[in-house]
């Protein structure tokens, strides 16, 4: 029979023992299980939609009396295997594999996109911080921004006299405005108290820009970069159809002239896949940028 002293000691020991709280672990396990179920459901829906699309495609093209113009899934698959087998073919300037066409397009896009970013970000920071300069340049921006990038192509050919440089120039014009406008908007959204505090601490202009303004504007800049890169990839295909040379646009146009529609479908899939990867790369960068 326990005495009151013994009971008090037992209560004290029980109170001092660490309690293992399994509630957070259970919640984590349920959340993990839910994510796994969602992943399986998403994958299953994708497979169903994909197979349904292939089935409808087959029904829509099989048996058509069009001289083979309508590409069937089977013909497109066979052509894909052929193109992969000769992807790295390099037999003269005109007879090259799909890899070199894709590489040429990516190089043009990255060059034009990079030049646009180098110019648009500093200019956007300047216009965002100076009301006078912004009001002076805004009419030009609003007039030029809606112009289709392809409208600059004839002017580029006339002035640059080089198809490669013209394609890069068109990409530059396509990527410039999304980055510029997004940067200006990002600067306008910065809390003025941050800049006033930096001024009160008697920091120089360089410190205010790189330590206060740029980090606060970075999320908007990355958003503009993402939009600009997607726009640039859209425009390059159309530009290459006109300027010629290597590139996915030129490849698609040549295959159309040869009435090789399965190759066109394969090229469309490749263009879409690369565009998706480019967008995902900027999206990953966007996740790393801290929200202001």
Automatic annotation (TrEMBL):
What is the recorded membrane topology of this protein?
Multi-pass membrane protein
Keywords assigned by UniProt, alphabetized:
Cell membrane, Membrane, Transmembrane, Transmembrane helix, Transport
Task: Identify one Gene Ontology CC term for this UniProt entry.
Answer: plasma membrane
| The keyword Oxidoreductase belongs to this UniProt entry's keyword annotation | no
Name the Pfam families on file.
Answer: BPD_transp_1
Which Gene Ontology BP terms does the record give? alkanesulfonate transmembrane transport
Instruction: Spell out where the chain crosses the membrane.
Output: 40-60, 80-102, 109-128, 167-187, 207-225, 259-278
Against PANTHER family, the record matches this protein to: ALKANE SULFONATE ABC TRANSPORTER-RELATED, MEMBRANE SUBUNIT (PTHR30151), NITRATE IMPORT PERMEASE PROTEIN NRTB (PTHR30151:SF7)
- Family note: Belongs to the binding-protein-dependent transport system permease family.
Q: What is this protein called?
A: Nitrate/nitrite transport system permease protein
């Amino acid at each position: 029979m326990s005495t009151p002293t013994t009971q008090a000691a037992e209560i004290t020991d029980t109170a001092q023992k660490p309690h293992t709280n399994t509630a957070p672990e259970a919640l984590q396990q349920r959340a993990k299980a839910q994510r796994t179920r969602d992943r399986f459901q998403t994958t299953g829906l994708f497979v169903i939609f994909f197979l349904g699309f292939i089935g409808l495609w087959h029904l829509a093209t099989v048996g058509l009396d069009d001289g083979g113009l309508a590409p069937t899934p089977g013909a497109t698959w066979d052509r894909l295997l052929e193109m992969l087998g000769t992807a790295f073919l390099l037999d003269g300037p005109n007879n090259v594999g799909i890899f070199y066409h894709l590489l040429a397009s990516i190089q043009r896009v990255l060059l034009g996109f990079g030049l646009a970013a180098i110019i648009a970000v500093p200019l956007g920071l300047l216009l965002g911080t100076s009301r006078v300069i912004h009001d002076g340049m805004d009419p030009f921006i609003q007039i030029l921004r809606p112009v289709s990038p392809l409208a600059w192509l004839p002017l580029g050919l006339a002035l640059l006299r080089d198809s490669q440089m013209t394609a890069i120039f068109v990409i530059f014009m396509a990527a410039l405005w999304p980055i510029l406008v997004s940067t200006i908007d990002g600067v306008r959204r910065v809390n003025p108290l941050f800049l006033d505090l930096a001024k009160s601490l008697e920091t120089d202009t360089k410190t205010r820009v790189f330590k206060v303004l740029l980090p606060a504007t970075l999320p908007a800049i990355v958003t503009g970069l993402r939009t600009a890169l997607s726009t640039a990839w859209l425009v390059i295909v159309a530009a290459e159809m006109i300027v010629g040379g290597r590139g996915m646009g030129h490849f698609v146009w040549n295959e159309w002239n040869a009435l090789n529609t399965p190759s066109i479908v394969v090229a469309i899939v490749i263009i879409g896949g690369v565009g998706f990867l480019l967008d995902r790369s900027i999206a990953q960068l966007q996740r790393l940028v801290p929200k202001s």
